[in-house]
Amino acid sequence: MFREHRSKLRHKATIYAMYVIPEVRLKGVGKSLILEAIGRARKMKGLEQINLGVVVTNIEARNLYRRCGFEVYGVEKHALKLNDKYLDEELMVLTL
After folding, report:
1. Closest CA to 33 of 55, 50, 10
2. Could you tell me where the DSSP H helices lie in 8-96?
3. What is the rounded distance in angstroms from the CA atom of residue 67 to the CA atom of residue 69?
4. What is the mean pLDDT of residues 18-34?
5. How far is Cα 92 from Cα 38, in angstroms, rounded to an integer?
6. I need a labelling partner for 28 at 20 to 30 A (CA). Which of 6, 18, 34, 48 fits?
7. Predicted TM-score (pTM) of this structure
């Protein structure tokens, strides 16, 4: 999680990446990581929201973020390109 530094953006933080190794998936590790980030964010003076993007085909991650309170506010078409294949991302926000 990275908090913006510029004065007009300081009310926002962004989670740029999260990865849970296959051996511990479905054991609550991802949820624990997100909840820890949210807890830390709530302690940051003046922070009002956390943003993140998640590939639309990653159903498990999308559901996790929704369960943790994130809401979709848009979709970025062709957000990522991997081996000449484009991936769309859902853009999500959690208001603190």
Report:
1. 50
2. 29-42, 59-67
3. 5
4. 92
5. 14
6. 48
7. 0.90
